[in-house]
Amino acid sequence: MRTVELLVVGGGPAGLCAAIQAAEMGSSVILVERSQHLGGQLIKQTHMFFGSEKQYASKRGFDISNILLDKIASLEKITLMQSTTVMGIYEDGVVTLEHKGEYIKVLPKATIVATGASEKTLAFPNNDLPGIYGAGAVQTLMNEYGIKPGNRVVMVGAGNIGLIVSYQLMQAGVEVAAIVEGGPKIGGYLVHASKVRRMGVPILTRHTIKSAHGKEVLEKVTLWQLDDQWNGIPGTEIEFGVDVMCIAVGLAPLSELLWQAGCQMKFIESLGGYVPTRDENLQTSVKGLFVAGDVSGVEEASSAMVEGYLAGMSAASYLGYKLYNMNEVKENLLNQLDSLRHGQMGEKIRKGIAELQIEHEAAASVDA
Amino acid sequence: MRIEQHPILDFKRGKKITFTFDGKQMKGYEGETIAAALHAAGVKSLSHSIHLHRPRGLYCAIGNCASCIMEVNGEPNVRICVEPLIDGMVVNTQSGKGELK
Amino acid sequence: MLEVTGIPTVEDIEKVFPSKERLKIGPVVVMECFQNIPCNPCYTACKTGAIKEFEDINDLPTVDQSLCNGCGLCISNCPGLSIMVVDMTYSEEEALIKIPYEFLPLPEIGETVKGLDREGKVVCEVKVVKVLRGKSLDKTPIISLAVDKEYVKIVRNIRLGE
């Protein structure tokens, strides 16, 4: 059995920032990541980020990842465990890991779960055909491994992911036949939409997939228009011959470990599904268990990073490591989160998070 | 289909290595996953559903959805989207739930 | 409309396009930023003080056009690629526009390419005057194009080849 002060689960933007902050305050940290690479989804983001300088705005995702990884490498207090999957969190606090067939037990004094989120899917006939991917999978292929998913694509979803990945597909030399959006409006940032529109890509709002066709792999897609009740309108079908379809209809928090640990969970649609209640310091209803990033509510990478710093600081404080200006730092991080969630796009997020706020005795020990 | 030129990214590929897929010899690069190497070679049909044997491809690519499981070096149910490719690997299409030998 | 089509309307463009008087003076920035999103790198990038500090990072950018010299530093710093520079003093018939272009191959200086509108439709031919790239642009090259003045509010992208 290994012991450690802080276990961070997930090496994406939230987990990296959490580990950095806690280690800088003096805590020993084990950072566990399922993939062979750290950086999570950042490493495949080729676009510049929004936000302010504090969240590395105007830098590209993979460059931000490199900045964070350099920082991680400079901190001796952090032990990295890549290609390692957390199997479970048990009542006695033991966390079990699997690394290349080896079974490892760790007993941390505090844990930060920053497992992120996974792509949702969409129900339509033949939605299991090879060639139909989550948009994130296509990003992995293109931007991490330099492999084209195919020649011509239909993108489902005009949220930020759908718009950004469409643009990236074109940068990789793949034709985007259309972006299909079930809702009456474009969900993502309009500047992203304008970028793909001026490349000649149509965005079909109030449309969805009627069915996919193909024998072994995807060959053709039939779309149709939706009425106000979200029912397909017969006679409005359009066909596209494509070998790729990307599904970008939202993300769902990867919250299995939180359920297992007994965290109080609430269903908040605007945050992607079941998410944990938490106090201001991002401590869940389970003492010593903190959350950060998409697992605590699906948002942008910028807010995931800020939440990571906050959870890292809270966990370090919980472990007894303090900063002389901790209140000031906390205030600053909370202000950053506020302003990232302040716009019209952030309204639903703010409401969702407000429903999750709890105060429990454990919170007192963090602020002490 | 590998991307040779990209406006934003430079792809640093590792050493060229070989593996077999259903008995056929294939090439890939050190540092990439089995799924990436198969995709580059145009193999999109990865697993098959247990009852209807419908072909399944890559869906999440982060080790989450199990749509890509294959038999690797005799071990079934390997998520090839997160499993690094190693020189000499034997990758096979899996039928059914797989069997531990 | 913009939120359904993704294409800024003529009215949207009019709102952010500099006045005739300002255009007579020289190059100036056009910011097609119509939505309150948390973002302020244009302000951070601006060295002349033309782009004002944001009270709230969700505000739309405000520009003091008298301070803008059309340098275009903000173009490649805008994560939304929503900024262009217009110079109506370029020549008698042609305006010069500077746009970001993140695709390969890049056009050659002197090459005639297709000018596209905000819907990606070919509207005219434009001439490539300059192709700016470099470390400080962080892989968002800036293309300067000579455009018939009649199309200055229409052309926003280019296409190479046939």
TrEMBL record, chain A:
SUPFAM superfamilies: FAD/NAD(P)-binding domain (SSF51905). Its EC number is 1.5.3.1. Transmembrane segments: none annotated. Keywords: Oxidoreductase. InterPro entries: FAD/NAD-bd_sf, FAD/NAD-binding_dom, Metab_Enz_Cyan_OpOx_G3PDH. Gene3D superfamilies: FAD/NAD(P)-binding domain. One of its GO terms (molecular function) is sarcosine oxidase activity. Residues 6-308 form the FAD/NAD(P)-binding domain. Pfam families: Pyr_redox_2. It is an enzyme of class 1 (oxidoreductase). The keyword Oxidoreductase applies. PANTHER family: ANAEROBIC GLYCEROL-3-PHOSPHATE DEHYDROGENASE SUBUNIT B. This is Sarcosine oxidase subunit alpha. It comes from Alkaliphilus hydrothermalis. The lineage of its organism: Bacteria, Bacillati, Bacillota, Clostridia, Peptostreptococcales.
From TrEMBL, chain B:
The keyword Lipid metabolism does not apply. The keyword Transport does not apply. Keywords: Oxidoreductase. Gene3D superfamilies: 2Fe-2S iron-sulphur cluster binding domain, sarcosine oxidase, alpha subunit, N-terminal domain (3.10.20.440). InterPro entries: 2Fe-2S-bd_N, 2Fe-2S_ferredoxin-like_sf, 2Fe2S_fd_BS. It comes from the Bacteria. This is Molibdopterin-dependent oxidoreductase YjgC. It comes from Alkaliphilus hydrothermalis.
Automatic annotation (TrEMBL), chain C:
SUPFAM superfamilies: 4Fe-4S ferredoxins. Residues 59-88 form the 4Fe-4S ferredoxin-type domain. The keyword rRNA-binding does not apply. Keywords: Iron, Iron-sulfur, Metal-binding. It holds the Pfam family Fer4_6. This is Fe-S-cluster-containing hydrogenase component 2.
